[in-house]
Amino acid sequence: MKEIFDRVSVRKYQDRLVEPEKIDKLLRAAMAAPSAGNQQPWAFCVVRDRAVMDALAGTSPYAKPVLGAPLCIAVLCRQSGLRFPEYWEQDLGACTQNLLLEAEHLGLGAVWMGIAPLPERMEGVGRVLELGEEYKAFALVAVGYPAERQPRHDRYDPARVQWR
Fold this sequence. Notes:
The chain is built from five helices and four strands; from the N terminus they run ααβαβαβαβ. By secondary structure, the protein is of the alpha+beta class. The protein has a four-stranded antiparallel β-sheet with strand order 1-2-4-3, sandwiched between helices. The longest helix is centred in the middle third of the chain and has 18 residues, at 88-105. The two termini are 27 Å apart.
């Protein structure tokens, strides 16, 4: 799959809105991820309001790309109904990766900004988005049309592979 090898973290964006149909495709791709026991713990907050995005950028020292993005998707854990609660972070990792790959496929750029498992970041996002007790913040994903692209690097390292 070309997108796996072409995807890079994009932190600078054009002053151009992401179309609603592309946002829908991003969310559909995210929700197509595998999950433990098919528990599908994901929920999302799609943020386009500039004041809210500015506040989200302050929830982590690494969330500054949100400041220049036209769109931020907060990836959240829906806590009710978890059959395998110890696996929610793995489930949401797969979900977030799907979102990033779909962004690449659609000609968009995105960057994953980790929030979980650090309580101060999770609580900060929760306060900004007024999540309440039902949801836990996992990640923020800034999305937009790339203003610039960094070169892709081949990360394959055969020294990290063990054979038995």
